Amino acid sequence: MRTIDDLDVSGKRVFVRADLNVPLDGDRITDDGRIRASVPTISKLRERGARVVVAAHLGRPKGAPDPAYSLRPVAARLGELLGTEVAFATDTAGDSARAVAEGLADGQVAVIENLRFEPGETSKDDAERGEFADRLARLADLYVGDGFGAVHRRHASVYDLPRRLPHAVGGLVLAEVEVLRTLTGDPRRPYAVVLGGSKVSDKLGVIDNLLGTADRLLIGGGMVFTFLKAKGYEVGKSLLEEDQLDTVREYLQRAEKQGVEIVLPVDVVAAEAFSADAPHAPVDADAIPADRMGLDIGPKSRELFASRLADTATVFWNGPMGVFEMEPYSHGTRALAQALIDSDAFTVVGGGDSAAAVRSLGFEESAFGHISTGGGASLEYLEGKRLPGIEALAD
User: Fold this and answer.
1) Which residue pairs, CB below 8 angstroms and at least 24 apart, start in 31-37?
2) So where does (2R)-3-phosphoglycerate get bound (predicted)?
3) Active site residues
4) Is 352 annotated as contributing to ligand binding?
5) Which residues are bridge partners to 262 per DSSP?
6) 27-39 tens-digit pLDDT
């Protein structure tokens, strides 16, 4: 893949597909991690005299403008981080976007409105996506793919647009791919993978693939209760995917045959309701009361997980250990993050809720080997899937 160092960008309009899909509370950004991650590539292009047109999506609007999903607050925050004024186009590929893009001088930056305000961005119809990509292509001379969180999507700005313009990979995507190649190639061992989050069905493919590469799988979060039920345990009112029980049993059997250690919690914090104020207490993982739900791994499990990570050389973590947004159920995720820091392993935090947890719980990002900006993209890469956005950049 060509990098931006291979492009002559001086005086050229460069379309940067970034990942600025940040959480908002109204128009207040609650976690600007993805915006900060986009700054190095944009700054490098500015320094080399590029006229930078930044594009991204935010949330899941229905293919039409929706003020709740406007990128205007994101553009303002990007300007603060860059230390320069950032122009904002009030549409995606219309009159405003064209005027803003054409009005840029060398080293200036603009953000166009949410790509998903256009139905062509996410369309499954090649012609509709292509028509939107054609309109986007008129905004720039060159394309840089730097939105790792979107490279697993066959969307117009990710897959079709780089086929219409001279293109290169941005520094963020390049770094992400290099880390993931380390994990899928020849990782230093022992290699442990920690998986959490709500649904086991979201991670079936990656578990299937990791049974052939990882030495240990540590399972927490809501998905663990399907594993516990598959072992014959009572899980009470905990999150459960009944339709995945047979698949999970097969994974447990395969892991045993292949010598892959699967580590499950030995206790969980069980509450009477999904609430921070509900009565809650640790209970053994094989004896969850029928009227309670597990919302975090328990204190004995925190110690167990830390002990199984202490001697590792490589760790990939995707998914919190509990409902970390509620303080009573944040301790498992906090303990896991600390265990990664305390280990001597190369630690990779796989984006999404895991990265959000690291920041919201007050950990220094520099304490980890790598914090990904793309949870879904990371998982699909580890699953062995081809990522459309990476294929387009390699073309």
Assistant:
1) 31/356, 31/359, 31/360, 32/77, 32/81, 33/355, 33/356, 33/359, 33/365, 33/371, 33/373, 34/149, 34/373, 35/74, 35/77, 35/78, 35/81, 36/81, 37/172, 37/373
2) 34, 116, 153
3) 34, 199, 352, 376
4) yes
5) 217
6) 899 989 899 999 9
Q: Which two tokens stand for residue 205?
A: 């493919």
Q: Buried (b) or exposed (e) across 192-202, using 16+ Cβ within 10 A?
A: bbbbbbbebeb
Per residue in 289-315, pLDDT (tens digit) is: 999 999 999 999 999 999 999 999 999
- Give the CA radius of gyration of the chain: 22
Is 59 annotated to bind a ligand? Reply is yes
Angle at 323 between CA 231 and CA 348, to 5 degrees: 85
Residue 34 assigned ligand-binding role: yes
pTM of this structure? 0.89
Pairing of strands 267-271, 167-169: unpaired
Instruction: Decide: residue 14, CB within 10 A, 0-12 exposed, 13-18 middle, 19+ buried.
Output: buried
152 is in an annotated binding site: no
Treating both helix axes as pointing N-terminal to C-terminal, what angle do 331-342 and 299-309 enclose, rounded to 10 degrees? 20
Q: 67 with 61: CB under 8 angstroms? A: no
For tokens 């998914």, the residue is 319
97: which residues sit within 8 A by CB, 6+ positions away?
A: 89, 91, 112, 113, 139
